[in-house]
Design a protein that fits this description.
The protein has about 300 residues and is mainly α. Helix 1 crosses helix 3, helix 2 runs antiparallel to helix 9 and helix 5 packs across helix 6. The two termini are about 35 Å apart.
Length: about 300
């Protein structure tokens, strides 16, 4: 992590990605995909989904803030920092992770990972809406291809492992929109003088606060009770995985902007499908593979056509 937060590329830069940035994207994509499988392991291990989100957020956030304090990089408490903590904590962790953890026992991990492929398309659509990018016909075609890929999964019942799963799969796409909104807001609201380490820690502690409120309202408590099992291990693994993920979220967006950042979902989708087949024996149907082809064609058009940045 550079000492000078301004030393890297300007966010949204269209320069060719450096080997370091490509490496960060690869690690982040695998980390995103691993989170989906960890959710499944925690659910299978009997960990309630709300305490699971709380502990992975609190444990990871506390670790990063302690490290930031040791390095003397704690951020000031002001409106700009509280705003970024609360918004990213909700959009990039608390809300999507609660929903994904809830869906983990209902939908195969490989199918939940499929929704990650839509994030770049959603980011580009939001950039157009906010006038942060120009309209391109080929990118519009990419958006339509991604939408067609989702319809291939949701419409034919034969494409899903069990009848009646279409509604759960559709609900599993909502976190993708949350991630897309978060990427755009990070680029717009990030305090540039603050490094990625405390921003990631603040995100996770804010998420822990949200999860604690919901957990208290529902009376759904869990604190590593019983003998140590796969659910306990998944929770601890999620803490460590989140430290890597959310540090890299801020760092990649700072270096390259939200559109290039969103291409991490190429890696996340393929990794998630692979983890689902490896860990849980998921067997995607021909419809799913067809959807992946359409989504990746759409992703290619969205993320490689023209230049990104503010119009005119």
């Amino acid at each position: 992590m550079p000492v000078d937060p301004h030393a890297a590329e300007k966010p949204g830069s269209t320069a060719r990605p450096s080997p370091l940035l490509i490496g960060m994207l690869f690690v982040l994509g695998v980390s995103f995909a691993l989170a989906v499988s960890l959710n499944r392991f925690a659910a299978d291990g009997g960990v309630p989904f709300l305490p699971y989100v709380f502990w992975q957020s609190f444990g990871g956030g506390a670790a990063l803030m302690l490290l930031a304090a040791a390095l003397r990089r704690l951020p000031p408490v002001n409106f700009r920092h509280v705003r970024i903590f609360l918004s990213t904590g909700a959009l990039n962790l608390a809300f999507p992770y609660m929903l994904l953890a809830y869906l983990a026992p209902k939908v195969p991990a490989s199918l939940l990972s499929l929704g990650l492929a839509l994030v770049p398309i959603m980011v580009y659509a939001l950039a157009l809406t906010l006038r942060q990018d120009r309209f391109h016909w080929l990118r519009c075609g990419g958006i339509m291809l991604g939408f067609a890929g989702i319809l291939i999964v949701l419409v034919p019942q034969a494409s899903l492992p069990a009848p009646g799963m279409a509604g759960w799969v559709a609900l599993g796409l909502v976190p993708s929109l949350s991630y897309a909104v978060n990427a755009v807001l990070v680029a717009r609201w990030r305090p540039q003088e603050t490094t990625s380490l405390p921003l990631a820690g603040g995100l996770m502690l804010a998420s822990a606060g949200y999860a604690f409120v919901v957990m208290a309202a529902m009376g759904d408590w869990w604190a590593f009770g019983g003998g140590f099992g796969i659910g306990h291990g998944a929770t601890i693994g999620a803490m460590a995985n989140n430290c890597v993920s959310f540090y890299l979220v801020f760092e990649v967006i700072r270096r390259a902007g939200p559109v290039i950042f969103s291409t991490v979902n190429y890696i996340a989708t393929l990794s998630g499908m692979g983890f689902g087949m490896w860990f849980f024996g998921d067997a995607p149907s021909a419809y799913i593979w067809g959807a992946i082809v359409l989504m990746f064609a759409g992703l290619f058009l969205v993320t490689t056509t023209g230049r990104t940045g503010n119009p005119g």
